[in-house]
Amino acid sequence: MSRVIWFDMRAQDPQKAIDFYTRVFKWDFKKSNMPMDYWLITTGDPKTPGIDGGLTQGEPIRPVVNTIAVEDLTTTIEKVQLYGGKVISPRSAIPGVGWFASFEDPTRNQFGLEQNDPSAH
Asked: Which residues pair with 7 in a beta bridge?
C-alpha cells in the first residue's frame, strides 16, 4: 500500500504563509540549504502519525487538499479566521469518523481540518 509521505505548498508571500501556519497549528519552518527559497515544515512530533512538508514561493497548487487533524475543530476554526483564513465549507459531520471543515489560507492554499469523533452524525 502506498502512503502520502510529503507535501509541498506554494505561496506568493511565503512569510505570510509561515506566519499563518505557525500561529494556527504551531508548525515549525526552517529555511533549507537548497539553491532556491525552500522551507522545511515540521508539523508535529515524529513519533505520532502524520507527514511533514515544504514551502516555496509560487502560485498555490489547487488539485490536492491536505487534511490536518486537530483536537478541537471549533477553536481551530476561530484561529484560522483570526489569522486571515477563510472558511470554504463549514463544520459538518462525517458519520462515525468525526467533524470536518475546509478552508483557504491567506495565500490561497486550500486545506481541510478534521476532529476525530466516532459519535459524529
From this structure: 53
